[in-house]
Amino acid sequence: MTTAEATQETAQHGLKAHSDGDWENRIPVQTRSERPKSTDVEAFEKVTGREAVWKFAPVAKLDALLNGELDGSRVKVAVPSIPGITEEWISRDDERIGRAGTPEERGAAAAWSAFQEAHLVTVSGDEHVTATITRDSLDAAPRAAHTIIEAKANSRGLVIVENTGAAQLSENVEIVVGDGANLTLVSVQQWGSEAIHLASHYATVGRDASFTHIVVSLGGSIVRLNPSIHLDHEGANGEAFGAYFADAGQHLEHQVYMDHDAPHTRSRVTYKGALQGEGAHTVWIGDVLIRRNATGTDSYEQNRNLVLSEGTRADSIPNLEIETGDIEGAGHASATGRFDEEHLFYLMSRGISEEEARKLVVRGFLLEVVGKIGHEATETRLQEAIEAELAESSI
């Protein structure tokens, strides 16, 4: 066998170019767990937009983050100084990096290859703590970032990441939830109108621990935030909620992965979105994998989209893969449509105008997710942001 033949035979599927006639190796990866993984951007081909993980994204507008040189220096963040919360910057070779997950696509790998230091935020102590991390001083230069949020064993905390202003940011966020811990992470995207944000979140959830991941995407030109939650210890619980409101020309994308890899784990996924304006585009892809050893699993995922005007597009793809028959239950659902006429009739029959009735339906639709944050000031501010979106609509 020649050197070239040996290289082709041993190359990991999906990471090297193939000839047009190499049909066997051109078969796409069907199982989420079998996707190629690497922290090295050069391990992935350049993105064309034909790949399964990129086919809905406006890849031409992401070239600087996918193929360009990224500034990997520290990103400006503000973290409050409160008991139970500590922060530090650690070098990229620190052993605490890489515990929660590994990139499965070029965008995340590019950010991982470029960052110089990681920002580590630690939640500790038995008392519940709340911390808001603010990022509002970035600029439009292409940047890479790496963040680690760790909840120590038996700790309890709520961490809110606020993103506003200008940005062209690609990042990886690792979440490590210790045994018996209870952590909620909220990521709020209220970027400026020209901002571009690519983010991959990876979580590993400890034994009898609970993790809630909440995404609220309202601002930005392109937001692509993909959480992967790995329930790889017995009794782990994972919940993922999302609310998004896309306006004209805005692209909001979320690809959610729930990986059940231990007995008696539980997950719930609920994402809800509204779309209005010409060219508004949302993408939701939900993958649930119940592995062979994940007996007693209880899982359900759903996505609901409310279309408010013509010229919008909502892609919604739920996927469920089960490798064992010994489970408590598993299911998925997806729906995209206009207003429920019965709801409108009910409100209008009580003296509410049709326009206000439509806005009430949208408020209730999205605020179901916002209300799960558990922080009054943040919930109020997001309610006001949704009200502002509705004030500009003509529904």
UniProtKB/TrEMBL annotation:
GO terms for biological process: iron-sulfur cluster assembly. InterPro entries: Fe-S_cluster_assembly_SufBD (IPR055346), SUF_FeS_clus_asmbl_SufBD_core (IPR000825), SUF_FeS_clus_asmbl_SufBD_sf (IPR037284), SUF_FeS_clus_asmbl_SufD (IPR011542). Residues 144-365 form the SUF system FeS cluster assembly SufBD core domain. This is Fe-S cluster assembly protein SufD. Belongs to the iron-sulfur cluster assembly SufBD family. Residues 1-38 are annotated as: Disordered. Residues 1-12 have a biased composition (Low complexity). It holds the Pfam family SUFBD_core. NCBIfam families: sufD (TIGR01981). It comes from Leucobacter viscericola.
